Amino acid sequence: MKALCWHGANDVRVDNVPDPTIINPRDAIVKITSTAICGSDLHLYDGFIPTMQSGDIMGHEFMGEVVELGSQVKNLKKGDRVVIPFTISCGSCFFCNRDLWSLCDNSNPNAGLAEKMFGHSPAGLFGYSHLTGGYAGGQAEYARVPFADVGPLKIPDGLSDEQVLFLTDIFPTGYMAAENCDIQPGDTVAVWGCGPVGQFAIRSAFMLGADRVIAIDRVPERLQMAAAAKAEIINYEEMDAGEAVTEMTGGRGPDSCIDAVGMEAHGTGLDALYDKAKQAVRLESDRPTALRQVILACRKGGTVSIPGVYGGFVDKVPLGAAFNKGLTMKMRQTHVHRYLRPLLERVQKGEIDPSFVITHRMKLDEAPHAYEIFKQKKDNCIKVVLKP
Fold first, then answer.
1. Bridge-partner residues for 140, per DSSP?
2. Of 90, 159, 221, 319, which cross-links 106 as Cys (Cβ 3.0–4.6 Å)?
3. Is the Cβ–Cβ distance between 76 and 152 less than 8 Å?
4. Number of neighbours of residue 321 by Cβ within 10 angstroms
5. CA geometry: angle at 260 spanning 222 and 96, to 5°?
6. Predicted pLDDT at 285
């Protein structure tokens, strides 16, 4: 089959690789009908996530048709259309039983490696380095899905791939980011980063009752998409974002601030130059410019929500500000399984059509070019869907 494979920083190629096979009786094989490039895939593309190996198949946002089942998978049948959560979860461990799916104890075969990095291992993830299991991803024609009796969600007739594809990651991630804010009537939520996750966080904040949402970015088409959702926008290259949100909230600061940027944040200040230099020589793994800003901008007693991916160690984080302002900080890989059915119901009711975020539809063979335009923000690219 064809699959997009990682061969080094800024080097991805569509290769011919062996078809996946059933390894465990709880596996399924899915013929992929739609897959997408996620902003967190760029961290792999740029070479900032350790333990990637040449030939690893990328991608964790995918859906398709079941073509083969292990003997213990009784909830699916061949021909079912399914979306696949990017987090791989067993469904029966301490954490799965507490609805903490992205912390599954049994799905990462390289747990010992992850423990050295994080203290404890998170769940396995599709297409996201050997630190999280080394599983083949979904930017391919077929994929093996472990624990298929737990993860995949069957899609009812009448919904297109593009309406449900983002249930795999970015819609639940953006929704979780807003849910973490415990939004109350009259609240103002500020969202740093208007990429795909930020766009879903903006719309989810409104769905959950926010009175105002302020969106911060520098890319015009992203800001325009945020404005179309009734967000108030700030271009941080034209003004200081922290000062602007303080002024827009009468000096108090937003009730909640969302960091939808993560480990490769851009900025205009000296701290951004500092981070870029330290990251380049691997003295710092992540660039936390946005994280610093959300902590400093959030009102006293407010909430900082972090859906943006952080992979390692960051410097100069104003923990004193977070402590002295009494901030609540919430962060995690998304417990996708928790949100699948509730968000599918919102799509079915017409409360949101997640396909709004798609700007490019391309063939799998075009994936290397898609990564380039997505990274470089060329051709007004916000979200790419690939068709194997």
1. 3
2. 90
3. yes
4. 14
5. 135
6. 87
- Which structure tokens are listed for 147? 């624990």
Helical H runs in the chain?
A: 41-45, 111-118, 161-164, 170-179, 196-207, 220-228, 241-248, 270-280, 289-297, 319-324, 336-348, 367-376
Angle at 32 between CA 352 and CA 194, to 5 degrees: 40
What is the chain's length? Answer: 388
| Whole-number Å distance between alpha carbons of 9 and 105 | 30
Q: Which amino acid is at 37?
A: I
Which residue, chain included where needed, has tokens 């990095």?
A: 117
Does pTM top 0.90 for this prediction? yes
CA dist., res. 274 & res. 316, Å (int): 10
Beta strand 2-8 with 11-16 is antiparallel
Q: Report phi then psi at 95, rounded to 5.
A: -80, -40
Q: Can you list the alpha helix ranges (DSSP code H) found in 287-353? A: 289-297, 319-324, 336-348
Cβ neighbours for 241, distance < 8 A, ≥ 6 positions apart: 192, 216, 234, 293, 297
Element (H, E) at 31: strand 28-37
Among the listed residues 372, 14, 55, the one whose alpha carbon sits nearest the alpha carbon of residue 4? 14
Kindly tell me the burial class for residue 270, based on how many C-beta atoms sit within 10 Å of its own C-beta (0-12, 13-18, 19 or more): exposed
Largest CA distance in the chain: 61
Write out the two tokens for 281: 């020589």
In the block, residue with structure tokens 């391919």: 140
pLDDT in tens, 173-188: 999 999 999 999 999 9
In this predicted model, what pLDDT tens digit does every residue of 41-92 receive, in sequence order? Answer: 999 999 999 999 999 999 999 999 999 999 999 999 999 999 999 999 999 9
In the chain, how many H helices and how many E strands?
12, 18
Q: What is the dihedral of CA 84, 89, 95, 99, to 10 degrees?
A: 20
Looking from the CA of 80 toward its CB, the CA atoms found within 13 Å total 21
| Burial profile 147-177: b = 16 or more Cβ within 10 angstroms, e = fewer | bbbbbbbebeeeeebbbbbbbbbbbbbbbbb
Token pair of 335, please? Answer: 């417990």
Q: Residue 90, by phi and psi: left (phi above 0), alpha (psi -120 to 50) or beta?
A: alpha
